[in-house]
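Each lists chain and fold; for instance:
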Amino acid sequence: MAKYTLIEFPSEQEFIDHAVADFMRLATDAIAARGKFSVALSGGGTPKAIYEALVKLDIDWTKVHFYFGDERYVSHVDPMSNFAMVQKSLFCHINLPNPNIHSINTDQPDPHEAAKAYENHIGDMRFDLVYLGIGADGHTASIFPGILVPENQKVSAFYVHKLGGYRISLLPNFINTAHQIRFLVSGASKKPVLEYIMQEPELPLKYPCQLIRACEILAHAI
């Protein structure tokens, strides 16, 4: 059974401030314990405001490594690219070495080969923190309703018919190995799915976010 802790904030600024302080605390602890802080990032408008706020942190960015929880199979300069959004809102504003950016290669002709390459790149690591969103339809990362998730992989490519394109995504079994997971949620359209997953039986084929086993949900304006 999934275990969620829901923390609601009355304003977007309090939501952002909490997330930034949480990031700093987890980073400090991870760097002290393991010498680096490994984070898997989410796309979308909700985390963008947090990424923009992270640039003000007084942190040794050389010890922070950024990965991606999912990616649209488009060029890194495409406006729809998660990498492009994070590059613009965070990476280009901090002293981050290029080797610390672990993006998904979307230039390969075959998205399935790209997914396998990213899985090989990740190897046996365990993330310190994974950021995820929840869609109004219950999807998380790029695991949409109705998608059958492979159990023996860490990363996979999926064709999302409703969006007319491929997505590459970390898979729930691997995400669940992270030290910490945070759902970042905003908007009234997310309220029904949040109410369901907090109280009702698991229907992960309909609500894939329920495949994430334990995490904090940081929410505002729902």
Summary: Residues 12-34 form the longest helix (23 residues). The two ends are 24 Å apart (CA to CA). DSSP finds six helices and nine strands in the chain. Helices lie at 12-34, 45-54, 82-89, 111-122, 172-175, 191-199.
